[in-house]
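PROTEIN DESIGN WORKSHEET
SECTION A - STRUCTURE
LENGTH: 204
TOKENS:
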């Protein structure tokens, strides 16, 4: 990990500096960009590593940046930072190939875990299949209602929206959501989204 570069794209200078300080303490090098255009200007000389980008920025938002990077052949793993209201957009980003998304405010430990996953993304096909099988086995333990809540939340629905769809109260959705997180051994919402995508791929 010490030979890689974490490219941080965020229009908030305080957030950029905070992330850089955290990574430095972990022995990780970082390069800071105030927007998507600044990162794209260095496409031909980007150091190996990964990209962390805010999803809501003036000028070029995170989704547009991701699209541009992929169009220009940049294969760096990408983590997006999102506000609560942007979760459906973050789910869309994961379906477009983003490695992870983190809801603000996020825990430093969660960010570092996501980074390690991104920087070691090249896992073998055998490991991927093993992980997919494990997710399938965990999902089989869910009740019918838990599976409905799992699918709704993983698609980007808020607790309130999921409650309306399923005809139950938001509080009941919260309880089911906590049960799903525990049964699926998920630490974050992005873990659930990733698991949902695995299940959909397996059933395709």
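SECTION B - SEQUENCE
RESIDUE ASSIGNMENT:
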């Amino acid at each position: 990990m010490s030979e890689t570069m974490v490219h941080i794209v965020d229009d908030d200078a305080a957030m950029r500096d905070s992330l850089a300080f955290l990574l430095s303490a972990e022995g990780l090098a970082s390069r800071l960009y105030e927007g998507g255009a600044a990162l794209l200007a260095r496409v031909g000389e980007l150091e190996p590593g990964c990209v962390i980008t805010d999803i809501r920025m003036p000028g070029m938002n995170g989704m547009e940046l991701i699209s541009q990077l992929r169009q220009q052949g940049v294969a760096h793993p990408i983590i997006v930072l999102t506000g609560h209201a942007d979760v459906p957009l973050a789910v869309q980003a994961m379906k477009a190939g983003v490695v992870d998304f983190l809801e603000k405010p996020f825990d430093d430990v969660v960010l570092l875990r996501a980074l390690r996953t991104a920087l070691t993304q090249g896992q073998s096909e055998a490991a991927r299949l093993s992980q997919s099988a494990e997710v399938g086995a965990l999902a089989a333990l869910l009740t019918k209602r838990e599976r409905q809540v799992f699918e709704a939340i993983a698609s980007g629905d808020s607790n309130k929206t999921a409650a309306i769809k399923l005809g139950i109260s938001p509080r009941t959705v919260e309880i089911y959501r906590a049960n799903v997180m525990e049964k699926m051994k998920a630490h974050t919402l992005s873990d659930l989204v990733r698991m949902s995508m695995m299940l959909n791929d397996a059933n395709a």
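SECTION C - NOTES
The CA atoms of residues 17 and 198 lie 35 Å apart.
The chain has ten helices and five strands.
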